[in-house]
Amino acid sequence: MDYIQHKTILLTGASKGIGRATALALAAHRVKLGLVARSEQDLITLKQEVEALGSDCEIFTGDVADESTAVKAVAKMQDRFGSIDVLINNAGYGNSKPFEQFSVQEWDDLYATNVKGTFLFSKAVTPAMKQQQSGHILIIASDVAKRTFATGALYCSSKFAQHAFGDAIRKELRPHKVKVSTVYSGLVDSYFHAEPQGDAAHKWWLKNEDMARSIVFIINQPAHVVIDEFMIHPLEQDY
């Protein structure tokens, strides 16, 4: 059964990596898709690909840490399509080095994207989801939300924050029949790492398409089913 078809889905961090792969995977289900990222040209190109697959698409260029980006994107999607059924909080990045070497600005910038962006977009979609008594909020976190590594204090703590935020709003929104799912991924071959995407060192890592299939699976469940947490790793990665 295809429970995704015709749903309205808003996706942040859509222009590359996991976000781009997810947009294309969703487009094959003939959805109504809203794509958010900083790169307008990348979004324009992706919009063309999405529409070629048979899905409607709106694009929004902006910073997820700017409340106006979230408010405008949600308002436009609601105005055009009537509702937002799914929000995928995918925008994020990481940084790794000894914690005392981080500047205050680096700390603030990463938390703004990874944590504040998740908060702002979730806040923007929640009133309508509560009113319609349905909806689904996904948070793309990381397995480091449940473990840590040396030189990862900034990134790990931001993902711990996403994990806690998702847990808390899941309890708040469940009585309103709004689902909240958090995805914890291991190593993914994407632009995210020091080596370029496709580097030989990433040969056995998860691919962006693996993550996209997992995200589609989580969304594509009947109304009475929620996948609260989803942990995924490449087989070669010890956890």
TrEMBL record:
<keyword id="KW-0560">Oxidoreductase</keyword>
<feature type="domain" description="Ketoreductase">
    <location>
        <begin position="7"/>
        <end position="191"/>
    </location>
</feature>
<dbReference type="InterPro" id="IPR057326">
    <property type="entry name" value="KR_dom"/>
</dbReference>
<dbReference type="Pfam" id="PF00106">
    <property type="entry name" value="adh_short"/>
</dbReference>
<dbReference type="GO" id="GO:0016491">
    <property type="term" value="F:oxidoreductase activity"/>
</dbReference>
<dbReference type="InterPro" id="IPR002347">
    <property type="entry name" value="SDR_fam"/>
</dbReference>
<protein>
    <submittedName>
        <fullName>SDR family NAD(P)-dependent oxidoreductase</fullName>
    </submittedName>
</protein>
<dbReference type="InterPro" id="IPR036291">
    <property type="entry name" value="NAD(P)-bd_dom_sf"/>
</dbReference>
<comment type="similarity">
    <text>Belongs to the short-chain dehydrogenases/reductases (SDR) family.</text>
</comment>
